[in-house]
Amino acid sequence: MGRDIRSWRIGRRSDLGINSLARMVNNVVRGWINYYGHFYKSMLYSRGPQP
After folding, report:
1. How distant, in Å, are the alpha carbons of 11, 21, 32 from that of 36?
2. Residue 50 and residue 6: Cα distance in Å, rounded?
3. How far apart are CA 21 and CA 50, in angstroms?
4. What is the C-alpha to C-alpha distance for residues 29 and 44, in angstroms, rounded to an integer?
5. What are the structural domain ranges in the chain?
6. What is the DSSP letter of 14?
7. Cα separation of 26 and 32, whole Å?
8. How many CB atoms are closer than 10 A to CB 5?
9. pTM here?
10. Helical residues (DSSP H) of the chain, grouped into ranges
11. pLDDT tens per residue, range 1-51
């Protein structure tokens, strides 16, 4: 998940407003939460920094 988020390069997306960025991110994060909340609930809890 972290790798995916970094690949979006959100800090460099000056072409999009905050609302557009939120819509883009929310759809993906909502999907992750729905999937991991159903199948891997323990993955939703922080385990510290990952390499």
Report:
1. 26, 22, 6
2. 13
3. 24
4. 11
5. 2-43
6. T
7. 10
8. 13
9. 0.55
10. 2-7, 18-39
11. 778 888 878 877 788 888 988 888 888 888 888 887 777 777 767 665 555
